[in-house]
Design goal:
By secondary structure, this protein is α/β, with parallel strands linked by helices. The protein has 19 helices and 16 strands. It has three domains: 117 residues, Response regulator (Rossmann fold, 3-Layer(aba) Sandwich), CATH 3.40.50; 163 residues, Rossmann fold; 123 residues, Helicase, Ruva Protein, domain 3, CATH 1.10.8.60. The chain has a five-stranded parallel sheet with strand order 2-1-3-4-5, sandwiched between helices. Helix 5 crosses helix 6, helix 13 crosses helix 15 and helix 17 packs across helix 18. The model has no long low-confidence stretch (mean pLDDT 86).
Length: 444
């Protein structure tokens, strides 16, 4: 990593430069903002250590100009006048960290090493996104936040290897897409991608599905059939929901993986298993091993590399981009979103993850009554979620009741008779509750 030190104090510049060079970094120094910008325009630095107060320019101004030249530059702001406001301003401008003078060199080195890891992850993720842009996946992988950057970085490093990969994640997190991405970035990208859903194939047919069968091998086997191992030759075999694989069939899969060859059902000729195996599960296979539901040796054979996908509730920063993508996908005339609606969508935990968000947007834009998506257009589980998460029982019930009444009035354009009917109450009770909750509505 090449580092630029910007400070108008000669002693501070020399101290930091000498220390960083001893640590093996390439380090240059500039005595002020103007000199720093000249160097920055000529040399590709990865990290800048910026003094916050200098004679010719402030560190904030220098960082802003550097970000305009290279938005990916990493920066640590250093100041003798530490304050919360200064730190907040620096972070808003895009600084990675903030240190006070006198600089603790051990702490500085630790921060720099963390930034190195972050920069490496960003570079890997950038390479993966570029590869995705140049290829066809059934659905784009959306996510610029740190959680997905970590996933894409791991995919970038794992994909070129021939070893097995186990992808773990809750339902709806996109395990199949990550499996396809591993295949796409592997040396076998031109080969086939064959998929087996281990939870969808009947147990008595699974061996045939995986290894194929010879003609007459069993009742109904009217012809020879190739299994998924053969169909994936020279490519990737994706074993989805591997945790659903019956215990009795696990030794046969293990043998094929260990010996890299297999026989069709009813056959004697051994066939080479020239495939790279990627498996996925939403279950904890370690717990299943402990319970005797999954073979330990098969687990370790599949789990050479593990990729864990974060649930959507742990990467909420990606929700707006996902919403934009799904709106464009499912709406001919993309509607606008009321700010309150966007806040509700971001706060909602989405137990069904990205798949649930996709279905929510698909349903909402299809059924929306206008050019702006409002709270009343959202499904009840999202509209009422916040109301049931805080306060006493009475407060929660009041909040839910208020929301239901407001939604009913919006749905029926303020017509109280129809709103009351939809709520299963009389118009008289509705008027009482309007007064109780201080809901303004024109009587119709």
């Amino acid at each position: 990593m090449r580092i630029l030190i910007v400070d108008d104090e000669p002693m501070q510049r020399d101290l930091l430069r000498g220390f960083l060079k001893k640590q093996g970094y390439e380090a240059d120094a500039a005595a002020g903002g103007k000199e720093a910008l000249e160097r920055f325009g000529a040399i590709p630095y990865q990290l800048v250590l910026l003094d916050h107060r200098m004679d010719d320019m402030t560190g904030d101004e220098v960082l802003g100009r550097m970000k305009a030249i290279n938005p990916m530059i990493h920066a640590v702001m250093i100041t003798a006048y530490g304050s919360v406001d200064t730190a907040v301003t620096a972070m808003k401008l895009g600084a990675d960290d903030f240190l006070e003078k006198p600089v603790d060199l051990t702490e500085l080195l630790e921060r720099i090493r963390l930034i190195e890891v972050k920069a490496a992850v960003e570079a890997d993720a950038s390479d993966v996104r570029e590869a995705m842009d140049q290829s066809e996946l059934p659905l784009r992988i959306i996510g610029d936040g740190p959680a997905m950057a970590e996933v894409l970085s791991l995919v970038r490093r794992v994909a070129p290897t021939p070893w097995s990969v186990l992808i773990r994640g809750e339902t709806g997190t996109g395990k199949e897409l990550i499996a396809r991405l591993v295949h796409l970035l592997s040396p076998a990208a031109d080969g086939p991608f064959a998929e087996v859903n281990c939870g969808a194939v009947p147990e008595n047919l699974f061996e045939s599905e995986l290894f194929g069968h010879e003609k007459g091998a069993f009742t109904g086997a009217a012809s020879t059939r190739r299994g998924r191992f053969e169909l994936a030759k020279g490519g990737t075999l994706f074993l989805d929901e591997i945790g659903e694989l019956p215990v009795g069939l696990q030794p046969k899969l293990l043998r094929a993986l260990q010996e890299k060859r297999f026989c069709r059902v009813g056959g004697e000729k051994e066939i080479e298993a020239d495939v790279r195996v990627v498996a996925a599960t939403n279950r904890d296979l370690r717990d299943m091993v402990a319970e005797g539901l999954f073979r330990e040796d098969l687990f370790y054979r599949l789990n050479v590399f593990e990729i864990e996908l974060p649930p959507l509730r742990e990467r909420k920063e990606d929700i707006p981009a996902l919403i934009d993508f799904f709106v464009e996908r499912y709406s001919r005339r993309p509607p606008a979103f009321d700010p309150e609606v966007m806040n509700d969508l971001i706060r909602y935990p989405f137990p069904g993850n990205v798949r649930e968000l996709e279905h929510v947007i698909q349903r909402t834009v299809t059924l929306a009554r206008g050019s702006v998506i409002r709270k009343a257009d959202l499904p009840p589980e999202i509209r009422f979620h916040q109301a049931t998460q805080q306060g006493t029982l009475a407060e929660r019930l009041d909040s839910v009741e208020r929301e239901m009444i407001t939604s009913a009035l919006e749905r029926y354009d303020g017509v109280q008779t129809r709103a009351a009917e939809s709520l299963g109450i009389s118009e008289r009770v509705l008027r009482y509750k309007l007064k109780k909750h201080k809901i303004k509505n024109s009587v119709r």
